[in-house]
């Protein structure tokens, strides 16, 4: 901030003193205070209801209608956070959070994020932040190595990786690369011929992303899955669909396979699907948002078998790699195709490095222009913990899920609906071993509501193959055996109450 | 993290002790250490070369090829940041950074970001984080009030606002909303008829975003601007183009007007352009990424005149509202259109609140699903500083730019190429008052290289209307009068050296 020019009447009339938005010593004091606030929040997090119990509109009535004209004190604001914000939080970091997929965190990632914020570098091209670009290249190769990806996905080989915010963005970028490659051959006027493929278990953003990219809604193919195949995509069903589309003179473009679907962590058979897709020159993307992190352990790596035949792969470290939001790793085999589709070259960003040295300008690997120094988080995670601890972290979560699986198996009123693959268990209450889907759905809905209304745990549901089921996703960072055990006790307690009431 | 099951051979064989990725007390200690690291960085930031002086590939040779198997100490990592990362940074927060547009910051926003990271809530829908959704609604209304936007853009009125990462994402969302509204009427097979409009000064992401959304490249109209009109878009040229397109049976869809273009902060006449666009039912978006923040001051608000006639407006607080990356505010007059185009409704996210209470689920206002609690940053900024200080912040930057303008005017070897509107000055060296564009470009390129190679300031260039010019963008958070003065001294010094050498 500049000093205020005393000769200018407009400024001397200002009701506030000369303003510094960041004085290093004030910053230091307040940031220390915030560290303690957050550390205390973590210490007490178990005491808050996991699922917020507020009613819609609760906050508007508490806050003024307009921003204040004059400053307010930091202590007042902190008090309001405690009083007004925290009760409205659904505490994703609570050890009793078993909903959706956990969003895992770590001290190392927090420190990396502080540093990323602190530098506030805007790494749209190499020159604007060489360290940001180069560290991102290094960590993407490191993680690719941990996952035993082929050289064709690494900068040290012939490909490369980039950090995105969300899987949606990652898939949009690859889809556009695939689309523009084909449209370059058949002409943009044939966009209505392009066909994309997912299964009924592919994440909901897939259809949304395809529509964003201008794929005709009638050309989005959803291959049905079955319980018999554990809700994985069937390669022969894919082949049939592609052959039918080719027969209709359509152009198969893009396949999204999933390793660890959102509902049940189903695993599409990458290798077999790639065999089909390769034959028809279809771009194949593997979405391993959640389960990809597990593949750093040898015992899970098999689920990526065939990855050497795919075109791109994404994985979200904010899900199961201790990373905080938001961070999605995307590796591509042919970065040139993506850069060709996404590059811009305005005069005001032109520079010798980009023109002569052939450096990586990550703005051409993403939707937007500006970008943060996200690589710091991953670098700090990998260095602070090492591969050994990161594997141990995955195994420990899986172990807790196994423990929970044992509990469920031990109670004949429950059944496991889908075999457990990672740290999510899908089960339902079925006390009489019945088959009436409607009754069982109602019963399990009631049970879930009862459990969540206690605020003691938070779980969610899904419905797959017509079956309504409860999801118990283990892995929130603070979760220990005792929380899993207590959750199971609560589930039984609520079940007893519910079954008694129904009699 | 769970405890390790001693009965399982695989785990007892682990070379590391049971692993906790976030112990609150370790977290506290390390985060305090990082606060000091960052505060010290800010204290010393003036001592670093603004523009990094490293060569491409500098980092790879310094770092190991793979992640470590065992943990490394925090102190070692901090040392490496100082030793390996900082020399590769282009220091965006340096008071001597006058390149691009500054990315402004503040203590309040840093604290808000810490809290956002700390909570790590994933606010895809209301239920998943009520406070995150509701606070975002409140701060978007607060900021809309400060900008004197009409009620039709506020939740307290009939519209609403949402936080996005970048302007590209904001424009993509509105473009899709506009596109799908029209395609709903004319059929998706007519996508090749849709035409979009920008000027030759519209940000480069506009063309990229339109291509992403499947607009045919041949239907992206770039209205030429002129120096006489200060590079603003000409409403009558727009009208002519639209009329020609209508005559060709094309469908005018979307206009991107800019308040404060990236090259020269040119200001498109929103009101006059909206008059044309409204007549043809064209969606008009105003991109005020940089200059929008200035419109909280009455003396700049005029540049938003006519906003009551547009469909959407975006502004990036990470540019000039002290916010750190990444944060872009998007207001829309008809959220329903956006929600219709962007909503998803997978079973695993279904909940009573979304179904019965008609709450806002922000996942339907953006590209991705997951989202961070970004509103905290804006809330802390507005409360910690108040409108008075935020206005003073804008005025102080403009005042410094005026001071620099005075310096340039005082030296007959220089000329101002575009009249200054905000805190950016576009000027060039033209010692003989010549007209030879090629010679002058070479001369100014050399001058810029000379200036930047000192590491003492960082400036960038642009080329508009065939004229190569230097950009001096004032407003980095630590910049004071003395830095602007020193920069001018350096520019004169380099100019003297250059002109001497050329003689």
Automatic annotation (TrEMBL), chains A, B:
PANTHER family reported in the protein's UniProt record: GROUP II PYRIDOXAL-5-PHOSPHATE DECARBOXYLASE, TRYPTOPHAN DECARBOXYLASE 1
GO molecular function: L-tryptophan decarboxylase activity
Species name: Cinchona calisaya
Keyword set, alphabetical order: Decarboxylase, Lyase, Pyridoxal phosphate
Pfam families membership: Pyridoxal_deC
Protein's UniProt keywords contain Transport: no
Sites of N6-(pyridoxal phosphate)lysine modification: 319
Protein name per the record: Tryptophan decarboxylase
Required cofactor names: pyridoxal 5'-phosphate
Record flagged with keyword Ligase: no
Family: Belongs to the group II decarboxylase family.
InterPro entries: Aromatic_deC, PyrdxlP-dep_de-COase, PyrdxlP-dep_Trfase, PyrdxlP-dep_Trfase_major, PyrdxlP-dep_Trfase_small, Pyridoxal-P_BS
């Amino acid at each position: 901030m500049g000093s205020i020019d005393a000769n200018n009447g407009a400024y001397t009339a200002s009701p506030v003193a000369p303003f510094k938005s960041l004085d290093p010593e004030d910053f230091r004091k307040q940031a220390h205070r915030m560290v303690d606030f957050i550390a205390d929040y973590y210490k007490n997090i178990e005491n808050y209801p996991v699922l917020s119990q507020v009613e819609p509109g609760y906050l508007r009535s508490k806050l003024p209608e307009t921003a204040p004209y004059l400053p307010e004190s930091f202590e007042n604001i902190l008090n309001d956070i405690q009083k007004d914000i925290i009760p409205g939080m659904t505490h994703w970091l609570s050890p009793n959070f078993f909903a959706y997929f956990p969003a895992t965190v770590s001290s190392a990632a927090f420190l990396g994020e502080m540093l990323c914020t602190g530098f506030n570098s805007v790494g749209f091209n190499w020159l604007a932040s060489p360290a940001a670009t180069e560290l991102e290249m290094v960590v993407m190769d490191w993680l690719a190595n941990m996952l035993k990806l082929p050289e064709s996905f690494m900068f040290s080989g012939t490909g490369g990786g980039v950090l995105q915010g969300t899987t949606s963005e990652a898939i949009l970028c690859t889809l556009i690369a695939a689309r523009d490659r084909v449209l370059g051959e058949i002409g943009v006027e044939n966009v209505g011929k392009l066909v994309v493929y997912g299964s009924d278990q592919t994440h909901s953003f897939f259809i949304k992303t395809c529509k964003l990219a201008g794929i005709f809604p009638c050309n989005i193919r959803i291959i049905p899955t079955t319980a018999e195949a554990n809700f994985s995509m069937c390669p022969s069903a894919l082949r049939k669909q592609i052959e039918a589309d080719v027969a209709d003179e359509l152009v198969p473009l893009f396949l999204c396979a999933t390793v660890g679907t959102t509902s049940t962590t189903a695993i599409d058979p990458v290798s077999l699907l790639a065999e089909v897709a390769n034959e028809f020159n279809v771009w194949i993307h593997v979405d391993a948002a959640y389960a990809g992190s597990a593949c750093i352990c040898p015992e899970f790596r098999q689920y990526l078998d065939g990855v050497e035949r795919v075109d791109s792969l994404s994985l979200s470290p904010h899900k199961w790699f201790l990373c905080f939001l938001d961070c999605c790793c995307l590796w591509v085999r042919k970065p040139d195709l993506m850069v060709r589709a996404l590059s811009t070259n305005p005069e005001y960003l032109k520079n010798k490095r980009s023109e002569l040295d052939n450096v990586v300008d990550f703005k051409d690997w993403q939707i937007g222009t500006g970008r943060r120094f996200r690589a710091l988080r991953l670098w700090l995670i990998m260095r602070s913990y090492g591969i050994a601890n990161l594997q141990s972290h995955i195994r420990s979560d899986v172990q807790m899920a196994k423990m929970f699986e044992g509990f469920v198996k031990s109670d004949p009123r429950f059944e496991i609906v889908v075999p457990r693959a990672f740290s999510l268990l899908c089960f339902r209450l079925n006390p009489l071993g019945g088959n009436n889907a409607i009754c069982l759905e109602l019963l399990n809905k009631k049970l879930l509501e009862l459990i969540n209304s206690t605020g003691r745990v938070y779980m969610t549901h899904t419905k797959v193959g017509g079956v309504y089921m409860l999801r118990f996703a283990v892995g929130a960072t603070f979760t220990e055996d005792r929380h899993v055990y207590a959750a199971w006790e609560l589930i039984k307690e609520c079940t007893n109450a519910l079954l008694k009431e129904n009699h």
